[in-house]
Amino acid sequence: PHADPWLSALVEIYTQKGLGRLQALREALLRWLRDKDGATPSGVVKPSRPALFAPWTQQHAEDVRRYLEALPPGALDASDWALLVEYLVRRYLPLEELAGEAEWLVTKAVATGVLRAHSAQAPEAAAVAAVLPMLPSVVDELVRSWRLSDAAQQVLSYAREQAAGAVVGLTEAARAGIRQEVLQHMRARVLGEPLTWQSLQARLLERFDALNRDWRRIAVTEATEAAGQGVIAALPPGALVRRIEMYHGACEWCRRLDGKVMRVVSPDKEGKDGWSEVWPGKTNVGRSRSPHKRV
After folding, report:
1. Which of 167, 195, 168, 169 has its CA nearest to residue 182?
2. With a cut of 50, which residues of the chain have pLDDT below it?
3. Across the beta sheet with 277-278, what order do the strands follow?
4. Cα separation, 178 vs 30, whole angstroms
5. Predicted model pTM
6. How far apart are CA 6 and CA 121, in angstroms?
7. How far apart are CA 102 and CA 175, in angstroms?
């Protein structure tokens, strides 16, 4: 669990939603594979396939589903299997819903950061459970009701896009990885190679295990970054903040910053010093600890 009570609650809620989606996708994929994998029938007339590059409207998705269900076991070719994976990923990992959930995560994370900037101590778990549902869930609501500064609004806008991009990347990885496993298995069957149904299940399980870990990593990194930015954006220029390393086994770079005090400055301050100053929007993206690089 995350060390911060606010972020721990957010991470767990977001993670469980994502793992539920991935579990539903995996179970549906295995059902389709069991139903459609089999000996190739003879004399089968396949129904006409929906246009490959048609827009995925609700009607198109329904046409794809009916087409796939009408195919008898063993009658699917490579493009049919690829179409099946595309259909399932779009059904169980719809990008619009995922983007909405990512916005929920970072909006509440930034809100908790603003609260922490004005709080002397961390709240109890019971207080978090009571307050968290009442915090704004979308960016526009948080900006409007909390009257955020321009800097905080910019932080929130970038956090939303960053989280949405991370989720899109995970979805693309899921689509590519699952398609690769299914197509390799079916190709091996056609060529008579000794691949078993159990071996496909095992490889898919490994894929989904990796996706589960990636989903939680997104929850932790995006929520932590958004909350930290919320803290800095809520503090006035001149405030002092101290970096406190919370984790055992932290890397040398993080241990080096443990206990460091930095001054909050405006993002538009000229000649900002990255080693002694911090400002809304500051990150370590693109920086390197390599002695051979100047950044």
Report:
1. 195
2. none
3. 240-242, 261-264, 277-278
4. 11
5. 0.87
6. 12
7. 19
